[in-house]
Design brief:
Layout (H helix, E strand, L loop, with lengths): L2 H13 L7 E4 L3 H15 L7 E4 L2 H9 L13 E6 L3 E2 L5 E2 L6 H9 L1 E9 L14 E5 L4 H11 L6 E4 L1 E2 L4 E2 L7 E6 L7 H9 L4 E4 L1 E2 L5 E5 L10
Helix pairs in contact: 1-2
The structure holds D-4-phosphoerythronic acid.
D-4-phosphoerythronic acid binds next to helix 2 and helix 4.
Amino acid sequence: LTQDDLKKIAAYKAVEYVESGMVLGLGTGSTAKHAVDRIGKLLRQGKLKDIVGIPTSKKTHEQALSLGIPLSDLDSHPVVDLAIDGADEVDPYLNLVKGRGGSLLREKMVEGACKKFVVIVDESKLVNYIGGSGLAMPVEVIQFCWKFTASRLQNLFQEFGCVAKLRTLGEKAEPYVTDNGNYIIDLYFKQSIGDLKAASDSILQIAGVVEHGMFIDMATTVIVAGKLIEEEKVA
Ligand code: DER
């Protein structure tokens, strides 16, 4: 089983929660892509009807359009029945890191408006604590004086060995620009930052910060597809 097989298994299992007539939050990333593909297929087969999709990124909007999934937005549908999306990290309390694909703001808006948020991951995303993968915890910031904001973020978590880096693209290292015209500062921690709610509050108090990639107490269900634990070899 490849990692993509595991992503597909988790995604298809999540789509079993989808019922005709639902307003669906459509996630972003390589795992959520499989769920959106599956929904499109079930619609085409007539096995699902009257679905309205609320995409969490321009990329997912394009994918859903190409699949013929009827689309709308939060202005028209402020309550979403079910959202299905991937994650970059899942801790033991089902808190998440999201946003390595750059879509954290729209994801958090849509997933914050849904009755049920099903997260789909392969086992490589499971961590003992947020930041434990050593990969980025993204923060979306306005472009104005981003260096000032980045240094305030880094100082906020200096006791945890935090390093803040502007996300860039390509060999010219152009700043990455989100769907919303903002920049992303990626935070790297060397140890657990402890109380996530306190960390979230202190990040959001910094003027210039738009949103961050910690999704605290938001997931209803997490579906993990992983290799079977090796059976004990019976002597
Ligand atoms: O960027 C995002 O929030 C994505 O959903 C990310 O969290 C998961 O992306 P992946 O399924 O491609 O690993």
